[in-house]
Design goal:
Elements lengths: L4 E3 L9 E4 L8 E8 L4 E4 L19 E3 L9 E7 L11
Parallel strand pairs: 1-3, 2-4, 3-6
Antiparallel strand pairs: 5-6
Length: 93
């Protein structure tokens, strides 16, 4: 659909919810999520893949792959940066 740039609030004063409708099985693009704080959450209509340690699986370049049960391949990805611009190492999803 497009490569969007989304952002949470800089001071992490309130929770932001970022919704990705993966059940549509459409190309969602390569999105960037900046200022992702401890209070922020990602919601998808289908479960994100987990790695062997139970954390959200990442691509080789650190992005979260969005998948759909109706598709055998990724339908998009999210590149997440914490408040201050650094990459978000672990997401508690």
């Amino acid at each position: 659909m497009g490569d969007d740039r989304l952002a949470g609030d800089v001071k992490d004063k309130k929770m932001q919810t970022f919704f990705f409708d993966t059940a549509l099985d459409l190309n969602l693009g390569h999105d960037t999520l900046a200022n992702f704080g401890k209070k922020d959450i990602i919601v998808t209509t289908e479960a994100l893949a987990l790695d062997t340690t139970g954390h959200v699986a990442r691509t080789v370049d650190g992005k979260i792959a969005l998948t759909s049960s109706g598709s055998e391949h990724a339908i998009g990805e999210i590149d997440i940066f914490a408040i201050g611009g650094g990459p978000r190492a672990c997401i508690g999803i």
